[in-house]
Amino acid sequence: MKGYTKTPYKVEPVRGTRNLRVRVYVPTELQAKYGKKEIRESLKTPDKSAANRLAAVIAGRWWQRFAEELGELSDPIAKLQGEAEQLRVALRSEAIDLETADVFFDAALESTLETLVRGRGRDEDTGYPLLNDAEESRLERVVESAHSAISNPLHRTLGEAIAEHLTETSKVLGVGTQLDRATELRKLEAHYGTSFDVERLTEKGLRRYVAEAMRDKAKTKTIQRRFSNLRVFLDWLKYSGYIDTRFPEDLRHAALSPRAANDSESSEPWPEGLILEFLQDPKVRPTMKALAVMRLYSGCRPEALASLETDRVESDRIRIIGDKNHPRTIPIHPTAQPLYAALKANARDSWLIPGQRPAGKNQTREFAIGRDVGRWLKKRKDAGTLKANCTWYGLRHTFVTRWRNDLDLRLEVMQELIGQKADRPSIADKHYRASFAVEKLAVELEKFHWPEAIEKTCLELAKDLPRMIAGEKPRKTGKRRALSHKDI
């Protein structure tokens, strides 16, 4: 890019932490405006490969902004658009009133037209500058957008809305998921344009965008992920009050390939015999059993429980904040309370589940446990004794199935426990219903139970847990070892 004297960005460690950060260098022409030569942003991950991918997204966002600002120095129409944006920001902060903004914009428009006349010449009939069709259409869009922005300073452009959405979701999404979300939304931004008014989004335009996106040859899971990211973003726009249009549900399903129905099957609940076999298997590590019991009595996601810190665990309740849904305080089932107490009393550091390191695409602490449980399940699937869609994540469905189908307990209490919305689960929705008091949740949770054999095994696990954890070796999640002659 023009104005750069060295590599546009660099990934480096942050002093005093394990995380990495990106340094994006500011072009020389814009250094006076920003008051600095580089912009630094934390990547919030120690993984180099994930950091490099995320740094490319962040740097690309800054490059696009720099390119637009550099274009304003030589493009009068772009400069007019930038001045209109500054007026909108001033109106939003109430630094000026509407009448003053109109006067300033009219003056800027006259100055722009004079500049264009000096560079392109004047039409003798109309008195306007001589512009080609593309330039004339662009100028009309800028003026129309500027008037709309000044009359409604609270409106959002697509670039602003995407930046705000990614900032909000960065607190609850992993690095890999955040990277996928940013990549898909940048494609949407490139299709419509950064300065596109989100209020002008229509179902017809969205269908056209989806049709163009479907021309790319991609796997079914990739297509599902792309449209899921798009749907969540548009739902967020609607709930934030920026648009009235909601992403049509039929688009996401109609766009999938014929084999999508088989690929998108939900996880099968674990049979009671499989739960008992898992908890009694001597080859299964105690931390795997402990996390399984915690999930059997709460229905929470594994990453939320694996990231529990001891200061968020009390004798009868826990505080969940590392979940994809809203932070919440939930009670501990009486059968699982001895297990939590044993884990907290024998904690080696600030974490409740010991010996876990962030790993995998999303840098989660439960990665090694989920991987090993998956291998344990795979042996039984290969032997033909277990269905293919019975997974580690399926323990969440096991809790829900037991709660609703077997015991027929209150649905709204179960949704509060697992962090699910009343009507439809969505990361983007910020408007959750009022939370239940923990005491009321505890009364209903005490009615929940598993068969006697499973509950007895859980209580025995809590007694033997300190001895078992003391003899457990830490699991490695680094690079795979090289093959030796013993492996051949």
Please tell me about this protein's structure:
This protein is mainly alpha-helical. It has three domains: 9-151, no CATH class; 158-263, Orthogonal Bundle (DNA polymerase, domain 1); 272-470, hpI Integrase, Chain A. It has 20 helices and five strands. A three-stranded antiparallel β-sheet has the order 1-2-3, with helices on one face. Strands 4-5 form a two-stranded antiparallel ribbon. A hairpin with a 6-residue loop joins strand 1 (9-13) and strand 2. The longest helix is centred in the N-terminal third of the chain and has 27 residues, at 48-74. The two termini are 51 Å apart. Mean pLDDT is 76; it is low at 1-6, 252-265, 422-435 and 474-488.
- CATH architecture of the largest domain, by name, is Orthogonal Bundle
C-alpha geometry = elongated
- The computed structural class is mainly alpha
Number of domains: 3
Calculate the terminal CA-CA distance, rounded to whole Å: 51 Å
Major sheet size, sense and barrel closure: 3 strands, antiparallel
Per the CATH scheme, the topology name of the largest domain is: hpI Integrase, Chain A
Along the chain, the helix and strand elements come as: EEHEHHHHHHHHHHHHHEEHHHHHH
User: How are the strands ordered across the major sheet?
Assistant: 1-2-3
Query: Roughly how many Å is the radius of gyration?
Result: 28 Å
Strand content is under 5%
Could you provide a short overview of the structure?
This protein is mainly α and 488 residues long. The protein is built from 20 helices and five strands.
